[in-house]
Amino acid sequence: MVVLRAKLLIAGDSCVGKTALTQVFHSDGSQFPKNYTLTVGAEVSVKTVHIPETSDSVELYIFDSAGKELFSETVQQYWENTNLIMVAYDVSNEQSFNACNKWLERCRAATPYQSVPGALIATKTDLKQRRVISAKEGKEFASSKDLEYFECSAKEHQNVEAPFYFLAQEFHKIYHEKLEVMKSLT
Question: I need a labelling partner for 38 at 20 to 30 A (CA). Which of 32, 55, 129, 183 fits?
């Protein structure tokens, strides 16, 4: 049985639902924040994800990063040594989608010597009437940036676990690929 530890950074504009997504995932759906609370710096939570068809697991150290530009210098210190990246946007807020490239560039700049698996998260999909960014637009952007695409609603507990489980499995896969390379050298 192998227990891996991975640092997962969640970035995106303020108010896109990063904290709600993290809290709902961490609490297995029992905690959804009813009121908005500004994240200052980063909030860290830890959750273990079991890898299917193995006895292995990945402990995700989830860094929910502040989205306000005011804190951009402060949060940079939390971004170093990131193993996994999530960039989130609100499907009802075009500005948050347009900012995804900026957030992704910042995340990748913090890990310049490694390729880091990532996911683009379309949040607040329960706001169907107010949606301005289509799934097609999200998927195209994700594909162009080598990200996996997910849509979710923390409020309705829809598809919240999927991006976390996907990234944990990617991290596990990379670990085993590196292990095989090391074995082949001996």
Answer: 129
What global pTM score does this model have? 0.89
Q: Which helix (H) or strand (E) holds 97?
A: helix 94-98
Mutual angle of helices 72-79 and 100-109, in 10-degree steps: 50
Domain at 151, CATH number: 3.40.50.300
Question: Could you list the residue range(s) of the whole structural domain that residue 126 is in?
Answer: 3-185
Query: pLDDT tens digits for 5-52?
Result: 999 999 999 889 999 999 889 787 666 566 656 555 577 889 999 999
Question: Is the Cα torsion angle 172, 174, 177, 178 positive or negative in sign?
Answer: negative
Find out whether 88 and 123 touch, Cβ atoms under 8 Å: yes
